[in-house]
Every structure is written in structure tokens, then in C-alpha cells.
Amino acid sequence: MPDGRTQVPVNRRRFLTGSALLASGAVAAPLLASCDAGSGGSGSDNGKTTLTVMYASNELTKEHIAAFESRNPDIKIQLIENDEARLNAMLASGKPPDFVRGAAVGSANNNARGLAADLDPYLDKSTVLKKDDLLPVNDNWRWDGKRIGAGPYYGITKDWSQDATLWYNKALFAQAKVPELSTTEPVTYDQLLDIARRLAVQKDGKTVTYGLGIEWQWGLSGPLFSMVLSQGGRIYNDDLTETDLTTAEAKRALQWLVDLAQSGAAPSSLNPLPDGADLSTFMAGRMAVTQDGYWYGGNFIKAPADLQANIRMAPAPVMGNKRVSPCYAGQGAWIPAKSKNKDAAWKLMEYFMAGPPAEERATSGWGLPALKSLLPKLPQEQPYQKEAYLTAQAELAYNVPMPDSPYVTTANWISTLNEYVDQAVRKTITVDVAAQKVTDDVNKLLKQGKDRIG
């Protein structure tokens, strides 16, 4: 998911099919050793260290690079536009970039294969990036050889959001005479489905105003995992080699997704949005609630005053007794283990994750910062920004790492869920059958991944 502020904003969460490609390719097939790796590895230019960086140019901008080089006259940055296929080839050639864009959620695959450098020695010495200043979203980068959330850090997040939270339009609630959502207390998913049905408006058999959007076309794994975790359920076994979606918790979550799609109250595989995202429909006043993280508020900075006056952010819904508010990605950066310029790459890490670019991102409202010290810089000028700030702060207490196995990827999960949930939605199979088929298919992928990685 490109989540730079100058990118078309609606693309932000497309990490679900984008950032997982490197890991997906690694599980599905060997690295592309026969491809042309292009430029990479260490180099020098008139005595300068050439730092090869693979990142999105709308996030690590020309201005950022110029400022960094000015501060570090002995380092020259060679920027390569983010490209998973090229990265695979460079890794296979033994000449990787020195600094790479990537998501925290899904990083277990890289870490288990030894592709990423252990950053703890740098963190322990840094006066800029400190472990006690890292928000828990960074725990998704940690790997102790068996699971995420413990052990060394293998990357740092630049910005993130708790993606199960809800944004809603008060005016549409008032129009339908439905009580507004609380900005402090979560609704249940069952309540949310009922609210969505009441808010939806249909004309001539078509939905003209949606009650809810869950960014269906971006993938269902994030919402599903969140629902299961909220019930105290699990996605993987202890060694991350098997999944079971035939549990009561998983089948309840699958049933909810099917019920939502069949209600017609939300975009789904039955009635997908033409542009593949909620934003334009929500901005046009044709969607009452959208499940998107804090970053979504950046879209409203230049919205008409009447829309700004009616926008609010609510906590992540719950399906069980446990409040969870996870991040589905957490874009950031990692340093390849075979980089020849780790020290220079770490200087860029400090600058980009804790220096002026990080402050700039925080004040923009396009996502939460990954550092506790930058949270006060989030925008609070507009009423919706003030309330969203308070909601987001409260949600931090419920942030939990997303389940992540090194043997399967987000992209694998999305394609499998899309196939069988859609069949259940269209009533060609039951939810029970869908649960079993997802379980069987993902377990095959987990075995393949385990066999390859060892």
C-alpha cells in the first residue's frame, strides 16, 4: 500500500496486494536469480558512499534526499522506485539495495529467511531512535526465530493506522434517524451490521447509499483476523505451520462477512465499487460508515466545510469480549542483511523515521507516527481532527500485532478468502464448506512455505 501523502490517497491500504508480493514470490517459487538485478550493492562516487535505496519517490522525496545528503556530505543516495520483482532479483544476485520499503505486518517471511539485518545493535546505540520510544506497531518487525512480537527488530515503521476503526458521516445518521456511533465506546459487529442495513438506501433494486464499507476490494484477511482476535480466537497454531478456520470464532467471522455482502448494505464482491475503494463514495455522501484507519482523516483536510463538520471517527468494533485495534500493514523500511552499507543505511533510517520527514508526516495527519514522542504533533485544528486524535489515542491501548506466519503471505490469504467467501456469498457453498476449503488451501500453502524455508 503506497501511503505517501502525495500519492492518490485512496491507494493507501493497497499493501494487501502490493507489499506482500516479495514474500509471496519467495514462498511460491525460488528467487528470480535469472533476472537482471540492475544497480545495487555498495559503491563510491568521488569518495562518497553510494547508498542504494528502494522506496516510493512520493514518500522519500527529492527534497528529503537533498536534505539528507546535505547533512551527510559523505553519502550519496541512488533511489530506485519501489519494485518487488526487481527487489527479488537484486536479493537473489547478492547485491541488494541498502534500504528497502516494506510493511511490518508480513515481515516474518523476510526475517525467517535471514534477508533482513538485526537492527538491535543500532537501536541500542542510537540517540535518535530509541526502543522505549517505539510504539507497539513496531513489534510486528520483531522476530525471535519462532514468532513475531519478540526478539530483535528487523525494521522500523514510518507511519501506520489502526485499520479496523470507523469513520462516519453524522448527517447520514441524522437523515436516517439512527443514533450516532460513540467516539469512545465500540459497537459490536452485529450492531454495526444492523446499523448498516438501517442506513442503506436502495432505489430500483440498487443501493444508492451504502450503510457501511469495509474496503472489501482491498482484501478480507485484515477484518477477518480482527474479528477472530476479538473473540479470543487464533489464526495459527503455536509454530505457525497450520491454520484452522473451522473454529467457532472463525466461522462466526466468515458468516458476518457473508451476511454483510448479502444485505446489499455494503460494497462487496456482489456489487463492487467501480474505483475499488470507499473514498469517493464516502466523500460524495453516499456511504455512512467506512472501516479505515486514522490515515483516512488526511483525505478530509481539503473537504467542503459541511463534510468536515459531519465527519467523526469511532473505535474498532468488537465481535467478542476482547477489544482489539490492529494495524494491517505499518509501512516502513528494513536493511538487507547483505547490504554493504549498513551504517550509512542506518543514518537514513534515523533521518527518515525520526527526523524532519517524520515530523512532517505526523503534522500532516496522514497516519500515526511510529514514535511516542511524535504523537503530540498530530493535527488538532479542526473539530473532526480533535475528536479523531482523542479516539486514536484511546485505541492505542488495544493495538495488538496481527497474526503473521513466515510460511504464507497476506496475498495468499486474500486470494483464498476472496474465492471461497464469494462462493458462500453467492450461495454456491455454505459457510461451513467455505471455512473448510480456506483451511485446506492455506494449510497447503503453509506446508509449501515451511518446506522451502525449513
Automatic annotation (TrEMBL):
Gene3D superfamilies hit by this protein: Periplasmic binding protein-like II (3.40.190.10)
Record's keyword annotation contains Transport: yes
InterPro entries tied to this protein: Bact_solute-bd_prot1, SBP, TAT_signal
Source taxon at top rank: Bacteria
Signal peptide bounds: 1-28
Keyword Transcription regulation: no
Cell compartment(s), UniProt: Cell envelope
Alphabetized Pfam families for the sequence: SBP_bac_1
GO CC annotation terms, alphabetical: cell envelope
Spans through the membrane: none
Keywords: Signal, Transport
Matching PANTHER family: ARABINOSE-BINDING PROTEIN-RELATED (PTHR43649), SN-GLYCEROL-3-PHOSPHATE-BINDING PERIPLASMIC PROTEIN UGPB (PTHR43649:SF31)
Similarity comment: family membership: Belongs to the bacterial solute-binding protein 1 family.
Name of this protein: Sugar ABC transporter substrate-binding protein
